[in-house]
Design goal:
Two copies of one chain form a homodimer.
Chain A (H helix, E strand, L loop, with lengths): L4 E5 L3 H13 L4 E6 L11 H5 L13 H7 L2 E5 L3 E5 L4 E6 L2 E6 L2 E4 L3 E3 L12 E2 L4 H11 L4 E5 L3 H12 L3 E5 L12 H13 L3 E3 L6 E3 L6 E4 L2 E4 L2 E4 L3 E3 L2 H5 L23 E3 L5 E2 L8 E2 L3 H15 L13 E5 L2 E7 L2 H7 L3 E9 L10 E9 L4 E7 L3 H13 L5 H4 L15 H15 L1
Chain lengths: 447, 447
């Protein structure tokens, strides 16, 4: 196979994975990777741990420049922002060292990622409100937290709670303020969210849920917020919030953009324009489950799309599965996982569903020191699993089971009759998901 | 429904679960539970933890006598050994307080469990060799271990290794001697067994594998063994080994017995004689995977068979799934799980198979302190999963995924393409089972 000229814009997780896929499909492809940052190929998912000082920013290096240039034989163009995408001429244009430079491609992969949406709070333009999206952000938060006695975290996403936990564990008095009625909304339904919040409250974190943030206060710098007339000040303020896909380049070039602002792609990660692929946070993902394309936002999706986009860009043929949005995180030692639709989402889409819950001790009943595993299942009234939430030991792997069942519409009896193992320190006779599945069957038969 | 007279022989896990199932199907059934022991309804799986002093024998109480008699309204006949089963008259006979007493049944459930096979070592009839099968055994080992400086464990089953770990953690110099070439044979293939052994060796346990035990030495009491001409002495000797189903009563009464000595049952847990059911260790289990009925031996199977036997004995209709023998345990904080056939077993049955392995770090690459998850998959040459072994975090739940796939012959692509979640402390981009599944696909496509 004649080597294609493959240009990849963006050297994050999706871009690097795409480069690997290109090389694995084609030995001769000429790979060029362009990134506006000089510091490329790092794992954004570790930023909270840099901010909390648990690891250094160097640890986040996904792949070394040497790996990219020597092993993958990619040409790296870093510190250059692509300003124009000329789809007619199959060319990207960036501001090079000697003026505008161009790069012709046979295949183009857009892996430009996302960025935090601007805050919609009066006064939030003041300096002193940290965001967390770059290594520099993470290092700034880390430095500032070293002298902070109080912290205010705006938002209650996984990232927000990971940060709050880190601050709190360093004896910084931490308050979380969110407009949502419960933490982790969008990930968990309120009951599961409340479980997580209770654990973090126990550790000393203060939560103010369902509170509109009216404005930021402070003279030269942000020093706090006003909510419900109450002024809450803190030495350190971090605002988390919605992410926006970096799709302006694609949009200007005429590529179709989805409702969330991400580049629309098909199962091959191909955009609406020939020979242009998109992968990761800048794109939307095909999914029947959510009844229409969805923003990706997950590292797990970024690597999967990167693989597919890279293979196809190099002349291969690969297809993505439907996204089921399997997402997990660990807070205060407790694993949390959510897959598919929450009940809140199912309701908003207009799906008729039933839900069942169970919370069982995860050691044998006779052995102390174990924890409960909370499981909630959401099924259509015809008995198809469309969502699952887990809080407790091994949640992420239970989430994998749910993901397999949702992806392939497996009967719920596969779960209720599953031959799970039993052992004193690993699993009870009847793990919660089995009992939740049985309850779901009872509800469906009765209903 | 007219209440049936249901007699259950054996008040272990299978018997108690059967009683619960009887009661849930029939409010009017007259339940009689007979057990030769006075101390009934305890969880045998916790005996190693009683022996190691981590819990007390009272903790093992599965259900209280009050629960059985008040909640389940069962009549308890304890300390009575059933001596005869008269299938013609539908009657069991035991030695009561005033001579032989009888109990008529409409349905009989045999849940008589198993016992350790006698040791086949010259000199093993000497006192001083402990077995571990009853609460008294566990308490004896616990008492003896309090003054022991050295321990010798014969066998390398999960139970043997759990005990060894417990002794070792209490600074008792512990040696494991097994005739098998590697620990956990029958559960894991040698590579996985060696991984587990390495962890335990690191903790200080000494292993002598592939060593025939020639005889027991000692004058009045056993004080050690001879193996390969070498004398190995210890203050405390525990012998583990094969289990024998308690099926003599059934056999004498003419019920069909399987090759392993267990009572033969169908998917309804019905024996070869009408109205007689069997559940748990005393029975064999239907399984296509193993090409013929197999001993059960697992608590997870005992509860499942108990449910089915109890439902059917009460007039309901329930069926067991094929056993896939999902089995897990935790040693030195490491979870181990094995499902289905090992490669060794597949070979001995004459199945053509391929195998693939993977061992990946289970945190994100940038976060220290995580562990690897080892995964081995065994597939028929036509691509059907027939076995899986896991050593590392969340092994038991990964084993559940394998169990679901094996039970329903799901395509291996369901695993290789599974949308697993990613998060720093919960799961890497590509967990080992995904990579092992991909390798299996590569082997199958190439092969």
């Amino acid at each position: 196979m004649e080597g294609k000229r493959v240009v990849i814009v963006g050297c994050g997780l999706a871009g690097v994975t795409a480069a690997e896929a290109v090389r694995s499909v084609s030995e001769n492809a000429a790979i060029t990777m362009v990134d506006e940052s000089v510091q490329v190929a790092y794992a954004r998912s570790g930023l909270t741990y840099v901010a909390s000082g648990k690891i250094s920013s160097e640890d986040l290096q996904l792949k070394s420049n040497e790996y990219l240039t020597k092993n993958l034989k990619a040409r790296l163009v870093t510190g250059r922002k692509v300003s124009t995408l000329d789809v007619e001429k199959s060319r990207v244009i960036y501001d090079g060292s000697g003026g505008l430079e161009g790069e012709d491609y046979d295949s183009l992969i857009l892996a430009t990622g996302s960025q935090p949406a601007p805050l919609d709070i009066p006064g939030s333009e003041k300096p002193g409100i940290f965001r967390l999206w770059s290594i520099r952000d993470a290092e700034s938060i880390r430095n500032s937290s070293q002298t902070s006695k109080t912290a205010l975290v705006l938002g209650a996403s996984p990232l927000a709670l990971e940060l709050s936990e880190a601050f709190n564990s360093r004896k910084i008095e931490t308050t979380v303020v969110t407009e949502e009625n419960e933490v982790l909304s969008g990930y968990l339904d309120p009951a599961a969210g409340a479980l997580v919040r209770a654990v973090l409250e126990e550790e000393g974190i203060r939560f103010m849920c369902g509170r509109r943030i009216e404005r930021v206060v402070g003279f030269e710098r942000a020093q706090g917020i006003v909510s419900g007339g109450e002024v809450i000040t803190a030495d350190l303020i971090v605002a988390t919030g919605a992410m926006l896909p970096n799709s302006a380049l694609a949009q200007t070039a005429g590529l179709k953009i989805g409702r969330s602002g991400g580049i629309l792609v098909d199962r091959r990660c191909a955009s609406s324009v020939e020979n242009i692929y998109a992968a990761g946070d800048c794109a939307e993902v095909i999914t029947d489950l959510f009844r229409g394309p969805q923003p990706s936002r997950l590292a797990s999706t970024a690597v999967r799309m990167g693989l597919v986009a890279g293979s196809n860009a190099a002349g291969g043929s690969a297809e993505s599965q439907d996204l089921v949005r399997n997402s997990s995180f660990r807070l205060d030692g407790i694993d949390i996982c959510t897959v598919g639709l929450t009940a809140t989402e199912a309701r908003s889409i207009g799906i008729q569903f039933i839900e069942s819950e169970s919370s069982e001790y995860q050691f044998a009943f006779y052995y102390p020191g174990g924890r409960n595993l909370y499981c909630k299942l959401i099924l259509t009234t015809s008995g198809v699993l469309i969502g699952a939430q887990f809080v407790g030991p091994s949640s992420s792997v239970w989430g994998n089971i749910a993901a397999m069942m949702i992806s392939h519409s497996l009967p719920i009896s596969y779960l209720s009759n599953l031959e799970t193992s039993f052992s004193t320190l690993t699993q009870p006779y009847w793990p919660s998901p089995i009992l939740a599945a049985r309850r779901a069957e009872e509800i469906l038969h009765l209903g």
